[in-house]
Amino acid sequence: MPTAPQTTDELYEELQANQRRPYGRTRTVTAEELVDAAERFEETLPLVRALLELQEAYTYGSEPRKSPVAFARLLTLFDEQPDVFDENLRHLVFWRFKWVASALRALPEIPRTSLRQWLTEMRERYEKAGLGLQPYYGQAYRLAAHVGEDTDLAFELWAARTRTPLSDCEACEISERALYHLASGDDERALRTWEPVLAGKESCQEEPARSIAHALLPLLRAGHTDRARELHLAGYRGCRRNPSMSGEVGRHLEFCALTGNEARGLELLAENRNLFDEVDSPLELLDFLNGVEVLLRRVEQLGHGELPAAGFPGRTWTVTGLRAEVHGRADDLAARFDARNGTTAHTDRRGARLGRAPLLEALELTLRTRRLDEVAVVPGVPVAAPAARAVAAFPESLPELVARARALDEQGHPDARACWTELRTRVTAPDYTHPDDPAVGPLARLRADLLADEASRRGERDDFTEAAALYEEAAGLYDDAGTPAHAALARAHAVLATAEIPPQTSARAASETPSGLPADGAADTGDTDGIPAEVAALTAAHAAMVRLHAETSGLAPYQEARLLRLRATALGLRLQASRSDGHVAAVLHEVGLLHDFATRHDIPGQIAGALVLRAHTFAISGDLPAAAAETDALLDRLEAHGPAWHLPRALGLRARLRLGAQDAEAAHADLGEALRLAADWPADAVDTARLHGDLAEACMHLGRPDEALRHLTRSAELNLRRGDRFDAYCAYSNAATLSVDLGRVEDCIALLDSLLAEPDVAAGEPDDRLVAQLRLTRARALRAGEDLKAATTEFLALAAESAGWDDDPGSHAMIAAETAVLLAEADEFDRAREAADQALAAHARDPRHEALSNCLRELARLQARQQGSDGLAGALAFLADAGRVAEEAHSAGYEAHGRPLDSALAYEYGRVHAYADAYEDALAALEKALALIGEPGPDNGRAGEWAECVRFAAAMEGVYLERPAPALARLDAAVSRLTALGHTEETEPLTSLAARLRDEE
Questions:
Q1: Among candidates 265, 226, 482, which has minimal Cα distance to 364?
Q2: In CA terms, which of 42, 172, 505, 841 is 20 to 30 Å from 743?
Q3: If you average pLDDT over residues 516-544, what whole number do you get?
Q4: How far apart are CA 970 and CA 958, in angstroms?
């Protein structure tokens, strides 16, 4: 707090501001400072309010040792100056006796006799004040349940009593009753009791998050796996990182451990690492550590004790090391509580949790499935995917393994990569000794082979800069080894990789970022003499490879075929970049050279490669029939002569052509077959990730969004495993957007939370616009899930960041507009006006006519609806801005994708005036809207908008202006016209209003 409040009004403003902060250290420290400030005033009331805020901060900030101290000061003031406490403050004092009872139970150093003494104090105070004792018996039951003695009697004494104004809320009491049945072993009754809370019918600050955490395992035991999954996603978000709900976080960790989701459990543990340091409640900490240990034990049992784990601050932890530490601390806490209570309840409950066996082998909790061997992956480093088929065992003999790797590599066989990986492991071992074998050659030759393989992998992930450098290094080693033909081939690869490096790193991102947010910086084409830099680079690369080819002698047929393939590829990429018809012939010429050479020397892989390049060339040039014919010929050849590993890619190519021809059904069939065949080969070799992505697109065309979602997430997962994080995040972003469209809001949020917690994202490594897109999708999902506070916070942060996107003001306009609407929904119209002004300023630089018009009309509607006539001036100001946007759109020749901007604006003028009780003005605006819409026709698609405008105008006229006759005439004429045009559905609201008006005559 920069400066202490100087007046009581300033103090109250600071208190209100602090109450809007989340519970935690910041809120608690500020509350302490405000108590100090309140003590300087002569009045007692400011101190009372400050102490109430401080106790609340201690209670929900998980600091039970301090809560009773704050309450003791409050109670002293209550006893000494009761007149200061009005009815509301008096109620709060008696309510918070329960808070103190809970705080004392959470501290094992407080003797059991002291706990009972406090309950006696509470009972006596309630009786003296003439208050019902049900809240007292509720606390007595909670103490009995905590200690583990006389629980049944205490429950009956509480549950049978009538609720009072000081009873816990319905949601909390339902939860306590359910937990009693759960502890009694009656899962079914517990779940029946919990139902109003789990269904969202009863809630409070802590519910349903607290109940959900305890209900997860009973739901699984009862076979309600889908509901358990849904509630886990929603409930975890309600308690994560919250010190006062650390026990509930622990139960979500336990749920992950017992459902085959150990990797997600470790991810959630990392997200909640703050709880190891911030939970000051021993009871909450014990509950949290019990859940943590269940998770860590399970991970250790699965053989992954060496994995890193988030734990107590001050050192790094492995799963095994953290489990041992947690075990010791939790054992100690349980023993301390049992010693205080004189029972073994906490040790017994802890043992029961640790002894539970997994309830399910695998329950898919989120759209992002992860394995434990992916938890410690370094971003960008590929992870071995689960083996799809058995690969021949590697020879023990290194010369034999080298021979196999080179032979497979000459064929372009996918299994070559596994051999190179095994060789890399052996060669880099500390005890490696290179064999003196002419068949293997010198170490420089083998090192060059490994570098070339690594360069190929980098190129597949579009890391062209690194690929070029590795190929150059390999070429040098090949020279050292006396293999000039290999050196030439490596240099040709380096030349092509260098040509593929984008002029700006962001150029690729700008073209690939999903759903509208471009990458940082415009894509600089770097034109030279009117030729784009990329085209010029590829032209130069082709010329360099032709020279290299001519200058190199001693090439083996497979090497010469590869050089021809690289030459053709360079020209194919040039055509793709230029889209120039003048470049087609050159590509086809090079492809012809490759095809003839490969046919002459019987190199099946390169024959197939030539046919693929030819089909691509026709497709890029727009000759889809020729491309389809080439692809059919390719598939016929592959089925007859192989190589079989080319079939999945060829089927994928034909599927994309069929998608382009609007034959989604045939494309779906091709892609399904491609994936079936792809299972026989390593995913990288057949680009399984792309097949899944294309299949998702086909599914969307066929109206199968759920199937599309599965393929999108599978595509993303495969891209992550091969280290292509950009494509993976793009696919996940699209999956998240689709999941919101499908109403799977919690799936979307859980997926994006997982992605945004990735180390490389936290370090700011990925493209900033892609990360912004992920955050924007998450903010929209939060809004869809009615978590408006969290959504507004994220939108405000994004609006602030996007204000600096000088290269892309249009995206800032869109984000600021959405932020303005959220602020208006929270009745913060001044801040909404500021955000709208930001949107308008950005729109002036990069127009977003429809989005801004929609936003401004919605802002006007919200302000008029919330404030009535008092908000009319502000609402009309928003509409005036919308009018200027509509005029700009008209001048620019812009046509809206949805409702025309002018008629939508006139309609909104009518609605705004209606909210302000200005019915004549509303009717006049609606008449204008009707004129702008025009009479409906049989096929013009405006019948619904016209009918709604008629209904609204008739309501103004007949109901609010009490002129039923003209209103009925309007309605009858509209119904007749719509019926004659065949728009019978649109007549229903009109006939309903007409019937109402006639009944009232």
A1: 226
A2: 172
A3: 67
A4: 10
